Amino acid sequence: MTIETVRISEKGKVQLSLLKRKTGISNWNVLCRWAFCFSLSDPSNPPKENVQLDSSIEMTWKVFGGTYAEVYFALLTQRCQQDGLELSPKILNEQFKLHLHRGIAYLASNSKLKNISMLFALTN
User: Which of 29, 55, 69, 120 is geometrically suited to a Cys-Cys bond with 13, CB 3.0 to 4.6 A?
Assistant: First the structure.
């Protein structure tokens, strides 16, 4: 495993705070898991951007993934392979950061997402 710490941008923190209010999910790591998986479900590559990891939200990979930390890492690895990317620690960290922040932005900007039930409905 190459990802040890998960950090969020200030913009991501604001978006996660909005998601906390909308869904009632109070844990950052749970919201981040949803966001990461939503981004992975989008077949396009996340746009390259310089995400400034400047907020106070920080967690270990183990906290991010919980019991399924290895599964989330396997999903990231599979996606990088699918996209033809090198499986170096640098690329895996970069792709995780890009997918996580794209997912956070996607969920936060979804006008249909007004409660936790609608979050579940997005999976259909």
Answer: 55
